[in-house]
Amino acid sequence: MSAVHETVARVHRTEWARIVAGLARRFGDLDVAEEAAAEAFATALERWPADGVPPGPGAWLTTTATRKAIDRIRRESRRDDKQREARIVYDDDPPEPIGAVDDERLRLIFTCCHPALAMEARVALTLRMVGGLSMPEIARAFLVQETAMGQRITRAKAKIKAARIPYRVPSAEDLPRRVSGVLAVLFLVFNEGYLATGAGTDPVRQDLTAEAVRLARLIRGLRPDDGEVAGLLALMLLTEARRAARVSATGELVSLAEQDRGAWDAGLIAEGHRLLRERLASGVAPGRYQLLAAINAVHTSARDVRDTDWSQIVALYDHLLRLDPSPIVALNRAVAVAELDGPEVALAAVDRLEERLGGYHAFHATRAELLRRLGRSEQARDAYDRAIDLAGNTAETAYLRRRRDQLRG
């Protein structure tokens, strides 16, 4: 990849959401915003190699995208719609009153997470519009086909347009019921950054994890007494604290058991633990994100993997399963059960999930590790092969290949 292409890719990571959000506010149309932003980046790829990268790449892209949007609206406008066209071109409307949060990207998130949309549509649309993820990346996050995901996002944008859903932060009265959808979005954005699935991307995308943390902090300022907001922020911080130790110098994923715990970020761990202690002191029953954060708190409390309190982790997963009886939670619980009751008990629990998780790489990776521990090497190799075929993260694939090849040796 040339230096200019690398620059465009970097600016896309840092500026996409801001550009789309600004266009959405000005023109009130997500299709116009997304397509104009995409055209601006395409123009940059054409012009910058010859003209050079401008001093302010973000400003150049914003100006170019705005012109692209205006050109499109002019083409689509009817002849008698001159007043509307002039208003868009000169942007002389008075500024919108400041809402609960003065951040364009949060306004865009709340628009994409409107309750008129199905939950999956809200999350997928926001991953595309705010996170800048590609269709393949979003499809992998949902374990669905790329074409199906594209149709889902197209329908969501059409519904926003047809229903005239406003581009604004909700009122204080509406905020509580709107936050859960935003948290789901931030959780998936963070997860994609933590274990990136895009071809040609870094295995860990710090731009996405940092943006998810930043937005979670803003939501925390909005809802300081919301336990799940605090729980999600704590979960992100405790996970992000381990980032430096997760990928080796050769680009291979490092398992939790093998990580250098001295490389973990003590400041982020302390902040995450403090948030959880505050929630525990409130006496309110924990929700899903708080329980996930508590599991991570147990892991980050252990100085050595041998000091991990697996019985507490299994108990937390039991509680979590009552709130969220999903196969993913059951799979993660089985990993902890293997440490407490042995791999044979865990494997029986994992095998019961095959019908629901047969297309999920982590299911086969977990089976491979359990079969390995039981000495069933041939079956373990087959499971590793299946996991490698399904995995999208380069560092994870490298780890799985090494584990498989050790058995062949």
UniProtKB/TrEMBL annotation:
Keywords: Sigma factor, Transcription, Transcription regulation. GO terms for molecular function: DNA binding; sigma factor activity. InterPro entries: DUF6596, RNA_pol_sigma70_r2, RNA_pol_sigma70_r4_t2, RNA_pol_sigma_r2, RNA_pol_sigma_r3/r4-like, TPR-like_helical_dom_sf, WH-like_DNA-bd_sf. It comes from the Bacteria. Pfam families: DUF6596 (PF20239), Sigma70_r2 (PF04542), Sigma70_r4_2 (PF08281). Residues 109-160 form the RNA polymerase sigma factor 70 region 4 type domain. Residues 17-79 form the RNA polymerase sigma-70 region domain. Belongs to the sigma-70 factor family. ECF subfamily. This is RNA polymerase ECF family sigma subunit.
